[in-house]
Amino acid sequence: MDRVFLLSPAHTGGLRAGLLMRPGADFELARKVRAGTASLGEIFTFCSGLYFRGKMAYATRFGQPLVITAGRGLLPAETRISLNELREFAAVPVESDEPRFTAPLRASVQVLARRRCEVVLLGSIATGKYVDTLLPLLGERLLFPADFVGRGDMSRGGLMLRCAADGGELAYIPVSGAVRKGTRPAKLPP
């Protein structure tokens, strides 16, 4: 069975996104954003660093990555994004009670739910901002890595980078009925 990974979005209102949107920014990725040739994966990796880079590497290695976006639902990581689209993402809060976020996400997930595939969320399950929309549509098919419970973003990013490099896939469990918050596991060895 095919496996699709849903990558939670990077914060597009932060300092790094501001660097990309700054008029006159003259580094390669900023030029690509202005030209509309930068991919969603490149932009979000830049905006969030280790965590999104880990998600991208892991999802690419073990299945199909789809990025959860603010206002456009699910998009392939290779989707080209313009400066205007990046600004649109930054204007939409990623919250479970924000219809500009949840309505497009719901529409995308309804299409995805018709496919015969496993769906793995590579993002926080501790809050409802993704789960509240995804779980009613995917039910038992919505999975997440069991090793994510209790880990922070940086630890999850490092774990996924290591797994992608060594080829060891994580174990997945259904979000439905799972313990979504737990004690912090031991730090990853250097």
Structure in a nutshell:
With 190 residues, the chain is an alpha/beta fold.
Characterize the largest beta sheet: strand count, sense, and whether it forms a barrel.
Answer: 6 strands, mixed
Secondary-structure element pattern, one letter each: EHHEHHEEEHHEHEHE
Distance between the termini: 34 Å
What is the count of DSSP helices, taking H or I runs of 4+ residues?
Answer: 8
Strand content: 15-25%
- List low-confidence stretches: none
What integer value in Å does the Rg equal? 16 Å
- Approximate shape: globular
Class computed from helices, strands and strand pairing:
alpha/beta
Task: Provide structural commentary.
There is one protein chain. The protein has 190 residues and is α/β, with parallel strands linked by helices. The chain has a domain of 121 residues. It contains 8 helices and 8 strands. The strands form 2 sheets. Strands 4-3-1-6-7-8 form a 6-stranded mixed sheet. A two-stranded antiparallel ribbon has the order 2-5. Strand 3 and strand 4 form a beta hairpin. Helix 6 runs parallel beside helix 7. The chain is globular, with a radius of gyration of 16 Å. It starts with a strand and ends in a 16-residue tail after the last strand. The mean pLDDT is 90.
Descriptive key words:
single chain, 190 residues, alpha/beta, two-stranded antiparallel sheet, 8 strands, 17% strand
SSE diagram, text form:
Blueprint: E1 2-7, H1 15-21, H2 28-35, E2 38-39, H3 40-48, H4 50-62, E3 64-69, E4 73-76, E5 80-81, H5 83-91, H6 99-113, E6 117-122, H7 128-138, E7 142-145, H8 153-166, E8 172-174
Parallel strand pairs: 1-3, 1-6, 6-7
Antiparallel strand pairs: 2-5, 3-4, 7-8
Helix pairs in contact: 1-3, 3-4, 4-8, 6-7
